[in-house]
From TrEMBL:
Catalytic activity field: biotin + L-lysyl-[protein] + ATP = N(6)-biotinyl-L-lysyl-[protein] + AMP + diphosphate + H(+)
Residue ranges of domain BPL/LPL catalytic in the record: 64-260
Function comment: Acts both as a biotin--[acetyl-CoA-carboxylase] ligase and a biotin-operon repressor. In the presence of ATP, BirA activates biotin to form the BirA-biotinyl-5'-adenylate (BirA-bio-5'-AMP or holoBirA) complex. HoloBirA can either transfer the biotinyl moiety to the biotin carboxyl carrier protein (BCCP) subunit of acetyl-CoA carboxylase, or bind to the biotin operator site and inhibit transcription of the operon.
Binding site for biotin: 91-93, 115, 119-121
Protein species of origin: Halomonas salipaludis
Keywords on record: ATP-binding, Biotin, DNA-binding, Ligase, Nucleotide-binding, Repressor, Transcription, Transcription regulation
Keyword set includes Nucleus: no
GO cellular component: cytoplasm
Listed name of the protein: Bifunctional ligase/repressor BirA
DNA-binding region listed in the record: 18-37
InterPro entries documented for this protein: aa-tRNA-synth_II/BPL/LPL, Bifunct_BirA, Biotin_CoA_COase_ligase, BPL_C, BPL_LPL_catalytic, HTH_11, Transcriptional_repressor_C, WH-like_DNA-bd_sf
Length: 326
């Protein structure tokens, strides 16, 4: 019995006794009780009523691999070699890196209900409660060198923004790999992107594109995050997690299949028009210090162009952290 097995039985919104759950799952009431305690520890809210049993306080939509594939357009299915749905992994990126080490990985997609060691940029953790977000990674093999990958994380941001905008969200992109939601209180982080590259950067290389998207984020989880955050369900509570997953998978597979031939220039205008800090002052934080500069845009390789002390500087991804100034 897994957490997913238990949730599938309880997602009808009805009360179920421990005995009924045990009979249907083929385990003891004690085993069911232990799993219910795990659900509570994972911030999955339960209601317990004496004489009736347990039910989910809030319905959860589990990931459905067959349903996601069924929603993909034909060209995306052609690019997709395998869709993997896991209940829990250390990280979806790590899962696909291991697949590449085994000689697979290209065109593969991994999604998970939860991850225990999810990472954002610069090694930061990525918090997402069980079954409430999208942790999604796509593996792709490129024949060209490192120049083929220039601006790729920004192009991934464009794909995510286009999907979210179709559902009525107003988003902005923060260089180099954050998707922000425009809220009455200001910009809040909605999604993060993490690219990991292996192989020969002068020749064939393998890329894992990771995307973490907040779909539903309980207040108790937000309270433990040290920056403004937002979730899709803040704006459109009815949108399906599986529908979002299918649209993101389709968009990313299309992007990756075209990127080696077209490069970042095909996505540069779309990124620029969503730039969160265009023509604004930002604080640039680097290893050797920090300074205030004015953002002038991005170049054809995805570098951020800023002006400091009358001099234009070109900032490459992975070197800095940029904070907006009010």
């Amino acid at each position: 019995m897994t957490i997913g097995d238990l949730i599938r039985l309880m997602r009808d919104g009805e009360f179920h006794s421990g005995e009924q759950l045990g009979e249907r799952l083929g385990v003891s009431r004690t085993a069911v009780w232990k799993q219910l305690k795990k659900l509570e520890a994972m911030d999955v809210p339960l209601e317990a009523v004496k004489g009736l049993g347990y039910r989910l306080a809030t319905p959860l939509e589990l990931l459905d691999g067959a349903g996601i594939v069924a929603q993909l357009p034909r060209n995306s299915r052609t690019c997709l070699s395998r869709l993997i749905i896991e209940e829990s992994v250390p990280s979806t990126n790590a899962y696909l890196r291991e697949r590449f080490a085994q000689g697979a990985g290209h065109g593969e997609v991994c999604l998970a209900e939860s991850q225990s060691a999810g990472r954002g940029r610069r090694g930061r953790g990525w918090e997402s409660p069980w079954g409430r977000g999208l942790m999604l990674s796509v593996g792709w093999r490129f024949e060209g060198g490192a120049n083929v990958l220039e601006g790729l994380s920004l192009a991934v941001g464009v794909v995510a923004a286009e999907v979210l905008e179709r559902h009525g969200l107003v988003v902005a992109l923060k260089w180099p790999n954050d998707v922000l939601l425009e809220t009455p209180g200001g910009l809040a982080k909605l999604a993060g992107i993490l690219l990991e590259v292996s192989g020969d950067l002068a020749g064939p290389c393998e890329v894992v594109v990771g995307l973490g998207l907040n779909v539903d984020l309980p207040a108790e989880v937000r309270a433990g995050i040290d920056q403004p955050v937002a979730a899709v369900h803040d704006v459109v509570p009815e949108v399906s997690r599986n529908q979002l997953a299918a649209e993101l998978v389709a968009g990313l597979l299309d992007l990756l299949s075209r990127y080696e031939q077209e490069g970042f220039s095909a996505w540069q205008p779309a990124w620029s028009c969503r730039h969160a800090y265009a023509d604004r002052e930002v604080e640039v934080i680097q290893r050797d210090g920090r300074y205030v500069a004015r953002v002038e845009g991005i170049d054809g390789a995805g570098n951020l162009l800023v002006r400091h002390d009358g001099e234009q500087r070109r900032l490459a991804g992975g070197e800095i952290s940029v904070r907006g100034r009010s």
